[in-house]
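Researcher: I'm preparing a figure for a lab meeting and need a structural model of a single chain. I don't have an experimental structure, so a prediction will have to do for now. The sequence is pasted below. Please return the structure as tokens so I can convert it later.
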Amino acid sequence: MKTEQGLLRISILVTILLAGVGILFGILSGSFAIVFDGVYALTDAVMTIVALLVSKLIASSASGEGKGRFVQHFTMGFWHLEPMVLGLNGILLTGAAIYALINAVGSIMAGGRHLDFDRAIIYAVVTLVITVTMAIIGFRANRTIRSDFVALDAKSWMMSAGLTSALLVAFVIGYLIQGTAHEWLSPYIDPVALTLVCLVIIPIPAGTIRQALADIMLVTPGDLKNHVDVVAETIVQRHGFLSHRAYVARVGRGRQIELYFIVPEDFPPQKLQDWDRIRDEIGDAIGGEGPDRWLTIAFTTDPEWAV
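Model: Understood. Here is the structure written out token by token.
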């Protein structure tokens, strides 16, 4: 429970279990909202499995433990797969919610549907307890792990908890109005609740999708670029270089930085060990050294090499 892959494995098992129970209870109770909850959870489970595989690839590649032909074909690492998975996950969850919204509106226009509120309430209570527990575990663990995959997984559990809470309130209202003058409203409880829930959760993955697209398109993070420029300009002034060129990108958890320093043609010759000491100085100043930092530093007298 203290590692990214351990949390994702547990999340997968719990999600698949809830998805199966949700689809079963949804069919038995006649609630499309519960069926959607199960399908939503199943979609999330499939994407979490993919996220776990990508996480393993990234960890093995970054640590140098990866072997075999597959790893040899990706000598630049597997960081680029992370935003692809995150973006696809967000798009699928959003698409599932949009589809459910369309069906819910159609059901309202058709006069709603009758359901067994007793079974629906039992399902909602049990599911709410599990989803809230998983969300809390994920958010707390990610304070240390700091994984985008775990963050998205915890957010998904929180979204599921919110969806289930809304359904529980709706089912309780439907149960209470049975046998009263308002019983005619009961067929609309399920589709109306589902409509409201979908309207709330559809925008939630938007931030993840936007960040994933930015990573895929190699959009330069402004804060990291500014930090690298400040460090590079300090090095230029300190060692008497002419200028520098910096290329920065965020790809999932990876930080790719390329720095080129333009050196005067009459610069005094130095040993390779001296250039390496400057590289170490630059790397320490940039910070973030670890398996997820790809740092390239080059020195040249020809500005064309830095373009």
